[in-house]
Amino acid sequence: MLPIRILALLLAIAPPVLHGSASAQMPSSSADFGRFLYQSNCAVCHGMGGKGDGPLAGKVDTRGGADLTTLAKANNGVFPLERVYQVIDGREEILLHGRRDMPVWGTTFLERIASEGTIELPWGREFYVRVRVLALVDYLSRIQQR
Ligand code: HEC
User: Fold this and answer.
1) What is the pTM of this model?
2) Is the shortest distance between the CB of 114 and ligand 1 below 6 Å?
């Protein structure tokens, strides 16, 4: 049977993922899974507003543009959804190009999910990694400069 905690989590994350960027105006920030994930994992380097000004920004090599609000602008106004997904997950990129300064979130999320317990997860662990990366992609698509 599905543990209640996971069911609640799935219900909480469904709206931003399913409705996409345009209509994902959540009533409060606590209901916005992508925003929650961003603030707790990414803001330390990329800044609370995504401008690349987090407290660790000067400590790591930020070449390649750690400003995440100009991804669409830099791509002729189109948010580069698939590339952003791959950069965040990172596992494929590491295979192709070797090490990088940006953490490999696909691996990190997988390890966290694995360490959360021994329960059998429906759809396998990879599904939960994808949901997290997708929620982040969705959030980033909503903070793009016009
Ligand atoms: C330890 C600091 C650090 C953290 C934490 C971090 N990043 Fe990054 N990120 C970087 C750096 C540095 C780059 C620039 C590319 C490189 O050198 O690897 C980058 C690049 C990116 C890019 C590509 C930007 C572009 O211009 O193409 C995206 C998208 C991104 N990060 C998203 C995220 C998300 C989402 C999270 C949280 C889940 C996150 N980052 C957490 C350091 C970090």
Assistant:
1) 0.79
2) no
